[in-house]
Amino acid sequence: MNLKSFQVPISKKIDLQKDYDPAFIPKDINKDQSVELLRSEIEKLTQLQDALYAHSSYGILLIFQAMDAAGKDSAIKNIMSGVNPQGCQVFSFKTPSEEELRHDYLWRYSRCLPERGRIGIFNRSYYEEVLIARIRPQILQNQHLPEELLLKGDRLWQQRFEDINHFEQYLTNNGIVILKFFLNISKDEQKQRFLKRIDTPKKNWKFSMSDVVERQQWDSYQLAYEDMFNHTSTDAAPWHIIPADRKWYTRLVIADIITQRLASLDLSYPKMTPTQQESLKIARDRLSNE
Q1: How far is CA 1 from the centre of its chain?
Q2: Percent of the chain scoring above 70 in pLDDT
Q3: Residues 6+ apart with CB under 8 A from 253
Q4: Which of the listed CATH numbers 3.40.50.620, 3.40.50.300, 1.10.150.20, 3.40.50.720 matches domain 3-288?
Q5: What is the pLDDT of residues 272-284, one digit of tens each?
Q6: Would you say the pTM of this structure is higher than 0.90?
Q7: How confident is the model over 110-125, as pLDDT tens digits?
Q8: Are 63 and 124 in contact (CB under 8 A)?
Q9: Among 14, 110, 163, 237, which residue's beta carbon has the most beta carbons within 10 A?
């Protein structure tokens, strides 16, 4: 699979609508094949995570962003189904508390970063601070910022892009590998998924009237996402825009990107020193002679 085609280029601007098709599926793959391939990727990920945990030098941060109903939750659930829960943590960031609002906007996210040897998943992330905060001015007002910052207009968002790039470079410099995914759903597909949630009793709980309210800002969100990609896809932490109209293909692409990146780290299990090997021999002899 040509995974580079999903990566937002570093050196040129993209047009989200023209350059990325939410319904893209390669001609040489179907749903049944994808399910089998995904099963294989999950097995690889299970082995790689075990080596990551034992190696204990790198931390992995997976960031998922999307419009509502794009399939973030189910993608995380399916792709990470074979991962040892002891080595993985998922954080879904909801409306910030008053304590969180009293700190800088990266504070609550930095507290949840993965330890070395672990995989951390942000189901939505600090990128909300240049997305919904940009669309909904009241969110910015609630952050207790100095008035001169609120008056900066678009320059405020440029500063936040720079902040985030520096933050991610700092994490990378300290052994945190960052993989960022945007699940790119079409407006028509989102509508169909909303209707299914409304018409299926077991899915009613997933639907909120706020989903319809946010949908009315679709074009504004698309522009905000596009601007974000063009300013925060870097060598240290590139963005991946994943077609999301077909969940089975979405999951396969994401899993493939994760496993390939982990495999590139050349993870290995700790080697025993001669002293440790001697201790193992003594322990084995004692257990054998019981």
Answers
A1: 20
A2: 100
A3: 1, 3, 6, 240, 242, 243
A4: 3.40.50.300
A5: 899 999 999 999 9
A6: yes
A7: 999 999 999 999 999 9
A8: no
A9: 237
| Tokens 């790119």, located at residue | 184
**What are the residue ranges spanned by the domains of the chain?**
3-288
User: Can you read off the two tokens belonging to residue 105?
Assistant: 């906007």
| Cβ-count burial 206-223 (b if 16+ within 10 Å, e if not) | bbeeebeebbeeeeebee
Query: For residue 180, what are the β-bridge partners?
Result: 63, 239
SS3 of the chain: CCHHHHECCCCCCCCHHHHCCCCCCCCCCCHHHHHHHHHHHHHHHHHHHHHHHHHCCCEEEEEEEECCCCCHHHHHHHHCCCCCHHHEEEEECCCCCHHHHCCCCCHHHHCCCCCCCCEEEEECCHHHHHCHHHHCHHHHHCCCCCHHHHCCCHHHHHHHHHHHHHHHHHHHHCCEEEEEEEEECCHHHHHHHHHHHHHCHHHHHHCCHHHHHHHCCHHHHHHHHHHHHHHHCCCCCCEEEEECCCHHHHHHHHHHHHHHHHHCCCCCCCCCCHHHHHHHHHHHHHHHCC
Residue 246 CA to residue 30 CA, distance in Å, equals 11
